[in-house]
């Protein structure tokens, strides 16, 4: 079976700083991959490249058989198939929850208002936030806001979810509900590439952990092997710092 996402030889520099130094990575459908690594190792840049927010300098990105790194590809069409959630929930404060959830689906990805609202309400209901659909974001806790941001990413039924440190701006007591939602998405068969500094969560949810250092993959393995028997000295040094 071919990979849902295939990255080959991804390179990206900012000026003369090479941030991604040739990344090869494949995700199978329904696979959850955790990207870990020190701050500045290139995790966010890699996710931004996959979502075409950054243009790669070299390499190829193939999503479900299509070369999306081809410059002729229309980025918005690709982004409709990739759900993205960032560290800061970035809900629009002047829009009600349901409008936050449906805005991009309607105006960027061309869903009808009726379809987007029906889908958005169903998803909010499923995570216990249906009653908040008409509220403004500042009436929600940080954890609820981040769950709304995840729902917003799911409205278009994306083939792939990219999650970038989605709990790092949350108070500790609000982290659990967001991680529970990610766990349930995995159980429902989502394909997820997530940068995370939550090692316990990576161990619990990821099928595979990929360690990035200075823009290169140093080691990758199933969580038990990665955390209990890291092979590379750089991996051991990283793990000893984060645990
Ligand atoms: P991580 O998410 O692993 O912390 P990032 O991908 O955010 O790492 O950053 C990797 C490196 O790329 C850092 O040194 C960062 O300063 C640099 N970088 C990221 N985005 C830009 C940009 N738009 N312009 C210049 N440098 C950038
Ligand atoms: Mg980052």
From TrEMBL:
How does the record say this protein sits in the membrane? Peripheral membrane protein
Looking up PROSITE patterns in the UniProt record yields: ABC_TRANSPORTER_1, ABC_TRANSPORTER_2
User: What Gene3D superfamilies does the record point to?
Assistant: P-loop containing nucleotide triphosphate hydrolases
Question: Could you tell me which residue ranges the ABC transporter domain spans?
Answer: 5-239
Q: Which SUPFAM superfamilies match?
A: P-loop containing nucleoside triphosphate hydrolases
Q: Which GO terms describe its cellular component?
A: plasma membrane
Q: Which InterPro entries match?
A: AAA+_ATPase, ABC_ATPase_HisP-typ, ABC_transporter-like_ATP-bd, ABC_transporter-like_CS, MetN_ABC_transporter-like, P-loop_NTPase
Alphabetical list of Pfam families matching this protein:
ABC_tran
**Localization in the cell:** Cell membrane
Tell me the superkingdom of the source.
Bacteria
Q: Name one GO molecular function term.
A: ATP binding
Query: Which of UniProt's keywords are assigned here?
Result: Amino-acid transport, ATP-binding, Cell membrane, Membrane, Nucleotide-binding, Transport
Q: Which family does it belong to?
A: Belongs to the ABC transporter superfamily.
Which PANTHER family would you find in this protein's record?
Answer: AMINO ACID IMPORT ATP-BINDING PROTEIN, GLUTAMATE_ASPARTATE IMPORT ATP-BINDING PROTEIN GLTL
Name of the molecule in the record? Amino acid ABC transporter ATP-binding protein
**Origin organism of this chain?**
Gryllotalpicola protaetiae
């Amino acid at each position: 079976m071919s990979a849902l996402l295939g990255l080959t030889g991804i390179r990206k520099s900012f000026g003369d700083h090479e941030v991604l130094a040739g990344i090869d990575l494949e995700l199978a459908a329904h696979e959850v991959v955790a990207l870990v690594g020190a701050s500045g190792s290139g995790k966010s840049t890699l996710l931004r490249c996959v979502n075409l927010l950054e243009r790669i300098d070299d390499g190829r990105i193939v999503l479900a058989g299509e070369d999306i790194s081809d410059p002729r590809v229309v980025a918005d069409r690709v982004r409709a198939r990739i759900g993205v959630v960032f560290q800061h929930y970035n809900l629009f404060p002047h829009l009600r929850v349901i409008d936050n959830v449906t805005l991009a689906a309607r105006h960027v990805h061309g869903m009808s208002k009726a379809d987007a609202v029906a889908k958005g309400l169903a998803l909010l209901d499923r995570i216990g936030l249906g009653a908040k659909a008409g509220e403004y974001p500042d009436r929600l806790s940080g954890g609820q806001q981040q769950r709304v941001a995840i729902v917003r990413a799911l409205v278009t039924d994306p083939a792939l979810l990219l999650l970038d440190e989605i709990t790092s701006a949350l108070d500790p007591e609000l982290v659990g509900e967001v991680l529970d939602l990610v766990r349930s998405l995995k159980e429902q068969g989502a394909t997820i590439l997530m940068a995370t500094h939550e090692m316990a969560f990576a161990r619990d949810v990821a099928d595979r952990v990929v360690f990035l250092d200075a823009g290169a993959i140093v080691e990758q393995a199933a969580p038990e092997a990665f955390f209990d028997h890291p092979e590379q000295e750089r991996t051991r040094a990283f793990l000893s710092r984060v645990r």
